[in-house]
Design a protein that fits this description.
The chain has about 290 residues and is mostly helical. The chain has helices at about 15-20, 30-65, 65-70, 85-105, 110-125, 135-155, 160-185, 190-195, 200-225, 240-255, 265-270, 270-290.
Length: about 290
């Protein structure tokens, strides 16, 4: 259970995003009975995706066992600490993979295909892609896009390409910020913590982060104006300031406080960021309920 990294499951909450944005389109806010079956199906996919990502983390720990054993923090992970045998870990991973795939198949064939693509992407990442500069963070970003896509495919909700692009850019910002934080914390032992870190330079990353953050805000603004499934009165523009502040806050946390190595903790521990995310959700819901 520890090896599946439960804290990381918060990333899979992105699966619920299409359901939120389809209010008064695929389901009616005033009729809870139209929401319940879609919510149940989305939750099933969320659980199945947690199984898949948990299995990926186990496989990743097995492949990184040598590096993890000499890492000051990662050496406490069950596999690296020899508290979980590799054979049992492989068996657990296969069971999780199999269960998640079977669940996705019974939801629909599109979700099943997306699950297979995600597994193939992550296994390729664990064995090959994570050793290449910037390709590693792009691969991680694509994984977030697949999460959002799975949420839409699970309940046959149309999703804007602009929203998928914004999701990918936001994920890229988080991933590249994580690399920066790892570089800062590793000091002169970056190769031990993560071999690819030796190829990254903080000054280069510091130029990329603001550019990606600004681009994310611009594309989100374009999304609020261009997506065909949003209110024609452009009221969704009211949510842009929340996204803008959230991005700037995250960049500030990363560059000034030198954090970002554990983004799942930042989201819930920084009161400003948590409040901004909460307000963005409620503001979006308000616009979609009363603006459509």
């Amino acid at each position: 259970f520890i090896s599946t990294r439960p804290k990381q499951w918060t990333k899979n909450l992105l699966i619920y995003l299409p359901l939120l944005f389809s209010v008064n389109e695929s389901w009616q806010f005033s009729e809870i009975t139209t929401f319940q079956p879609l919510f149940v199906k989305t939750s099933i996919i969320f659980i199945a995706f947690c199984m898949i990502t948990g299995a990926v983390y186990i496989i990743n720990d097995l492949l990184d066992i040598k590096n993890d054993k000499v890492h000051p923090v990662k050496n406490k992970r069950p596999i690296a600490a020899n508290s979980l045998s590799p054979n049992f870990a492989v068996t657990a991973a296969l069971i999780l993979f199999g269960t998640g795939i079977i669940i996705s198949y019974f939801v629909n064939i599109k979700v099943f295909t997306a699950f297979l693509f995600y597994i193939a992407l992550m296994l390729t990442y664990s064995t090959l892609l994570k050793h290449h500069l910037y390709v590693d963070v792009i691969s991680i970003s694509l994984g977030f896009v697949i999460r959002a896509l799975c949420g839409a495919l699970a309940v046959n909700i149309p999703i804007s390409n602009w929203l998928l692009i914004c999701t990918g850019l936001g994920a890229f910002l988080i991933a590249i910020s994580k690399r920066r934080a790892e570089l800062v914390s590793s000091e002169n032992q970056s190769r031990i913590q993560r071999p690819i870190l030796a190829k990254y330079k903080i000054d280069k990353i510091d130029k990329v982060i603001p550019l990606v953050g600004f681009t994310t805000i611009i594309f989100y603004a374009v999304y609020t104006l261009s997506a065909v499934n949003l209110p024609e009165n452009n009221l969704m523009l009211a949510t842009v300031p929340f996204v803008g502040y959230g991005v700037f806050r995250y960049v500030w946390i990363v560059k000034v406080n030198n954090k970002g190595e554990h983004p799942e903790e930042i989201w819930f521990k920084d009161i400003h960021l948590l409040s901004t995310i909460t307000l963005w959700v409620f503001c979006s819901l308000f616009v979609l309920v009363f603006g459509r």
